[in-house]
Write a structure and sequence with these properties.
heterotrimer, A mainly alpha (281), B mainly alpha (326), C alpha/beta (560), A: mainly alpha, MetI-like fold, 10 helices, elongated, B: mainly alpha, flat, disordered C terminus
């Protein structure tokens, strides 16, 4: 497993654009963790005197919003929520997808078909609708949003892992292990999963931006994270509702910018990984 | 023959998926907090009982389920809980054509531009143009719908009028930022919706082309003396387009989800806007009815494209699916 | 004899690494030149470079390629397209992957005619159908309407040959056109190419790794090794007196059983004609049973001298796969006994059931009916059967987990069967590696860092670590070049003598079996059609199918 990941990582980092993407993402994560602590302003501090200040004015690097709240702090607090939800949901999707796909691939035959039909049925339902339905049921807390997201995105990972498992199952080294009397569990953990590790990693890397995408869209529609907590999507929503973007565009465009940057850099990274992995075969 | 068997299997799958969604939504109705009639006001218990009887909410679980299915098949998706004299079906009848219009326009635009970009990227691969296109595609794919929506609204609707005003002195908005009347109001939303999808198409075509051009039969076609244009357009394209059909499912899904967002930004009276507002109003029957309908459309289109794919690709049908190896 | 193609001081490099170095080669009008070399020697790269089919972005060239006194290496892409297909044609190895799967044959085969001779679609189709008929395709209209995947390899290749010759090129480059085809189809295709050359005066560059095949078809031969031409000359001369070391090695490695020279060329004429399976032979084959007499004869003779123990007994094994309506009968009542210490060769073409048999013997699969006994006990109930019976696989790249180091790969059998301490494990691994002639430092490397021959040896080390009594070798040499093949077989002999292994050697290549096996069993369509000692099968085959196989691999005098 390590060999695969090591060679893939080195291959990816050689590409300048992918490297840039990795760096950008890393910076954003670091800022999300550390930045709010360094600012004098509080997340909640309303300051009626300083509403709608432009960016780079009077100590407010990103300006203020309609309540006079410092946008710099808000953006990075929002980053924490958006990133945490995105990454957590992606990890859960990866775990569910891997286990499901590997089992389907190993069992083969009727069980495999049944499992994949179920996954396909779930896949064909538009994510957003499912997520909305789940949040309707379970409320709008971070926890339920993560849960809702995890329930839909695992199908692509499952499909990929199942495909790999099916292919690896036929390989001679699996046959060789069988000739040596290996059990199914041994084969799955020693031979199949390690050789899937690259694909699983790519899946993870591409699941994070799609989770962030889904969460921000949800929050933008007012159906996800609700105030007082605010993810980037929520900020855009509030911006649209309470601000006239013709006069104060930055309130809307700042969180928008960060969503875009995060997703673009992650997508570039994931794509590059995919390219490196595919070219090795 | 083999094809009819495939057809039947696919239709069965369609029905199974729909059944899954329908059951899910029904279960959700039951699980939702509070009775639908307790939304805030204090209601006299007697009236409550009458209402419950009217809506059949006092009958056992199983019977309600059957009633629900029966109604669905008939096309009756229930009655809005908030606007008591409107049925879900009537809302759909009014809103769906609008969403359909927007969706089709966006799809056509996205397909056209996406294919063009993908082709150009292949024909001029590794030259400067290709890199520009790659970057554009990357950005387009990575942005959520509302980013494109906000950008298009800001620049096309607002900034453009400001520009015109500064030149001519007349305040005129070329592309209105709300509503769905007349061609001009369709431009900005369509472009916004098409943006993300176009990226998907272009990306897929490029990847697909790259795979195809690595194949042996492309070497053979060059050895026959065909020039690059003939090789790409004749031999490679058809093979490369096939995988595109396979992403048509996610494509349609994207458009539907995207339309939810775009309709909200541009205040377009389509399904998406009704969906969002009914969630906010906690109008549960409306939410579920709209959800079921939207899923129905998506799954229907997926089924049709799958069948089309089988028709177009001669290998899918003729190849016998040998599950065991010799 | 005018020279039609002259390659002068031609070099090809990729990212600074030289793939072809200072190639000088020429072909005369109407002659057939064979370009022979091992895999990786650069022969395919050279072939593609002539028409510049390599990606110019990655490959750099030096030198000139003169085609009828014009340097085609310096032409623009546009000018080159006028030559490709029209004056120089090319045929590739696997016809099915070199044909576009979504177009019918008609569309693809008529392309050169339409492009270069500007002939209309309908007329071109007519011309192609004529040509196909001449090439012994019985139903050209049906053929043209088919998709590539609906045709067999041999049929598709005929179509490709027809297409390439349709524009009457002056030179045809054939890059291993028969390597992926069965032996019998191979001969018919070769005869076809030879006839074409003779009748139309087309020069042919025939690329192969098989010197003997080259001898059957070519006038002259050029030997290429590691990107350089090491020898060139008349083919019979080169075969008799190889001047370079590489040629000698290639020759040596071509294992010919006894090197016989039969004047009685019993090559069946109808088989050469390539009219699919010969109907007469087919009907004879359909009604055959396992030849029990030969088996009994062997037992009587052999057991008379040495009382050999029956190690593995296979009794009436049947394997049927259900596939919708059809039943695929992979094995139809196979019975066989393997004696201790012998090397049993299992000979048959692809699809005869030998792989299925090996899978059942190693317990990867369960048979539909029948039983297999090892030392008298049913193998499916025996507990540590893997200790006694092990297997070596055909493709060394896929038979090893690319994520595992050699040490772990070799030790796997031991790890599963029993737990040993770290030092013991390493010691056993090193012992096993040395036994197959590998340095002990290899144990820390990964499979992709080894050569094909080394990997295959690791596979043997892996199989031997449990000290098995039977070793099943499933085509272990078919992915190796001829030199490595010889090394491998030497190793097998050495091991046999050292530790008294019993081998079951599966292959479709009779030349190999001739050298190392004691007995040979011939399989066809899921049945054993004949068993006998090596000499009996080689020199006195009884069953018509066996005869056909033997004859197809002899080196006769050149086909006239």
């Amino acid at each position: 497993m390590l060999l695969y990941v090591k060679t893939a990582v080195f291959g990816v980092l050689k590409n300048k654009i992918a490297f840039a993407g990795a760096v950008i993402f890393f910076v954003i994560v670091m800022m999300a963790i550390a930045a709010p602590a360094f600012s004098p302003y509080n997340y909640h501090s309303h300051d009626a005197d300083s509403i709608f200040l432009k960016p780079m004015s009077k100590g407010h690097w990103f300006g203020t919003d309609e309540f006079g709240r410092d946008l710099f702090v808000r953006v990075w607090q929002g980053a924490r929520i958006s990133l945490a939800i995105g990454i957590l949901a992606a990890i859960i999707q990866m775990v569910i997808g891997t286990v499901y796909g590997a089992m389907a691939g190993l069992f083969g035959g009727l069980a495999d078909e049944a499992m994949m039909r179920l996954a396909d049925a779930l896949y064909s339902i538009p994510d957003l609708i499912l997520i909305v339905l789940v949040t309707l049921m379970m409320g709008n807390s971070c926890f339920s949003v993560v849960l809702a997201l995890s329930m839909t995105g695992w199908t692509s990972t499952a499909r990929v892992v199942r495909g790999q498992t099916l292919m690896l199952k036929e390989m001679d080294f699996v046959k060789a292990a069988k000739v040596m009397g290996a059990s199914r569990r041994y084969i799955m953990f020693k031979h199949i999963l390690p050789n899937c590790s690259g694909q699983i990693l790519v899946s993870l890397m591409l699941n994070i931006p799609s989770a962030i995408f889904a969460e921000s869209t949800l929050s933008f529609l007012g159906l996800g994270i609700r105030p007082p907590e605010a993810s980037w999507g929520t900020m855009v929503n509030e911006g649209f509702k309470y601000t006239n973007i013709t006069y104060h565009p930055w309130v809307v465009f700042l969180p928008l910018l960060f969503i875009a940057i995060t997703m673009i850099s992650l997508n570039i990274l994931g794509d590059e990984f995919k390219k490196v992995l595919d070219s090795k075969h | 023959m083999k094809f009819t068997r495939f057809l039947l299997k696919r239709l069965a799958f369609f029905l199974v998926t729909m059944w899954l969604v329908v059951t899910l939504t029904f279960v959700l109705i039951r699980c939702l907090p509070g009775s639908p009639f307790n939304s805030g006001k204090m209601v006299h218990p007697q009236i409550l009982n009458n209402l419950n009887t009217k809506y059949g909410l006092d009958k056992p679980f199983y019977e309600q389920y059957l009633r629900y299915i029966k109604n669905l098949v008939k096309g009756d998706l229930g009655i809005s809980m908030i606007y008591k004299n409107r049925s879900v079906a009537s809302i759909i009848k009014r809103a769906f054509p609008v969403s359909l219009d927007l969706g089709v326009r966006a799809l056509v635009l996205a397909a056209f531009v996406g294919l063009l970009l993908g082709l150009m990227s292949t024909l001029y691969s590794n030259k400067a143009l290709d890199h520009i296109i790659s970057v554009t595609i990357m950005i387009a794919v990575s942005m959520p719908g509302f980013v494109a929506g906000a950008l298009f609204q800001y620049f096309l609707c607002y900034r453009l009028s400001v520009l015109i005003q500064s030149i001519t002195g007349v305040r005129y908005s070329v592309f209105p930022n709300t509503g769905w009347e007349g061609f001009r109001s369709t431009v900005a939303p369509t472009m916004a919706l098409a943006a993300g999808v176009m990226g998907m198409v272009a990306k897929m075509l490029r990847t697909s082309m790259k795979d195809v051009l690595d194949q042996n039969y492309i070497v053979m076609s060059r050895a026959k003396g065909l020039n690059k244009r003939e090789v790409v357009l004749r031999h490679a394209l058809k093979n490369a387009l096939l995988p595109l059909l396979s992403i048509s499912g996610p494509l349609v899904s994207s458009i539907i989800m995207g339309s939810f967002v775009i309709e909200n930004i541009f205040s377009i009276p389509g399904l998406g806007r009704y969906f969002v507002s009914s969630v906010q109003d906690k109008d549960y029957t409306m939410v579920l009815g709209l959800a079921v309908f939207s899923v129905f459309i998506v799954v229907l289109i997926n089924t049709i494209t799958d069948i089309l794919y089988a028709v177009v690709d001669p290998r899918v049908c003729i190849e016998s699916k040998d599950r065991l190896k010799t | 004899m005018d020279t039609i193609l002259k390659i002068k001081d031609f070099s090809l490099s990729c990212k600074g690494k030289k793939i072809l170095d200072n190639i000088n080669m020429s072909v005369s009008k109407g002659e057939i030149l064979a370009l022979v070399g091992e895999s990786g020697s650069g022969k395919s790269m050279l072939a593609r470079s002539i028409l510049r089919l390599n990606n110019p972005g990655i490959f750099d060239t030096e030198g000139e390629i003169f085609f009828e006194d014009q340097d085609i290496n310096s032409l623009t892409e546009r000018q080159l397209t006028k030559i490709r297909g029209a004056r120089i044609g090319m045929i590739f190895q696997e016809p099915l992957s070199y044909l576009n799967p979504v177009f019918k044959m008609a569309g693809q085969l008529t392309e050169p005619l339409k492009k270069h001779k500007k002939i209309k679609k309908s007329k071109a189709a007519e011309l192609m159908e004529d040509l196909l008929r001449k090439l012994n395709i019985n139903n050209p209209e049906q053929y043209m309407k088919s998709y590539p995947h609906q045709l067999s390899g041999g049929m598709a290749q005929r179509g490709v040959i027809a297409m390439t010759s349709s524009c009457e090129p002056e030179l045809i480059i054939a890059d291993e056109p028969t390597s992926s085809l069965d032996v019998i189809v191979q001969l018919s295709i070769i005869k076809l190419i030879k006839d074409l050359a003779r009748l139309f005066g087309v020069a042919v560059i025939f690329i192969t790794h098989d010197l003997q095949l080259a001898a059957k078809i070519a006038d002259r031969v050029a030997v290429i090794s590691k990107g350089r031409i090491v020898e060139e000359g008349d083919v019979q001369e080169v075969l008799k007196n190889p001047k370079s070391e590489e040629t000698a090695q290639l020759l040596n490695a071509c294992i010919v059983s006894g090197g016989r020279d039969t004047d009685k060329s019993v090559l069946d004429k109808s088989v050469l004609e390539g009219t699919g399976t010969n109907d007469r032979v087919k009907s004879v084959l359909e009604g055959t049973e396992t030849n029990d007499q030969a088996q009994n004869l062997y037992e009587d003779n052999i057991c008379a001298d040495v009382k050999r123990k029956a190690l593995l007994e296979i009794r009436d094994l049947k394997m049927h796969y259900k596939n919708g309506q059809n039943i695929n009968r992979a094995l139809e009542g196979v019975s066989l006994t393997v004696y201790e210490g012998e090397t049993l060769g299992l000979l048959g073409e692809s699809g005869c059931g030998k792989s299925t048999l090996s899978r059942i013997i190693t317990r990867i699969q369960r048979p539909t009916s029948g039983e297999v006994l090892f030392d008298g006990k049913d193998i499916f109930t025996k507990s540590d059967y893997p200790k006694d019976v092990q297997m070596i696989f055909q493709d060394s790249t896929t038979s090893m987990n690319p994520q595992m180091r050699v040490e772990d790969i070799v030790a796997e059998g031991m790890d599963i069967l029993c737990k040993k301490s770290r030092q013991e494990r390493t010691r056993d691994v090193i012992e096993s590696l040395e036994r197959v002639g590998l340095d002990k430092n290899i144990k820390d490397r990964f499979p992709h860092q080894l050569s094909g021959g080394q990997r295959q040896r690791v596979g043997i080390a892996r199989a031997l670590i449990t000290n098995p009594r039977i070793l099943i070798c499933d085509e272990p040499t078919s992915y190796l070049d001829t030199v490595s093949q010889k090394h491998m077989l030497d190793l097998f002999m050495k091991l046999k003598n050292e530790i008294n292994l019993t081998y079951i050697f599966i292959t479709h290549n009779i030349r190999i079996l001739g050298n190392i096996s004691d007995r040979i069993a011939v399989m066809h369509k899921g049945r054993i059609v004949e068993i006998g000692t090596k000499d009996e099968i080689e020199f006195n085959p009884i069953h018509p199918y066996t005869k056909m196989l033997i004859n197809a691999s002899i080196t006769p005098k050149k086909i006239q």
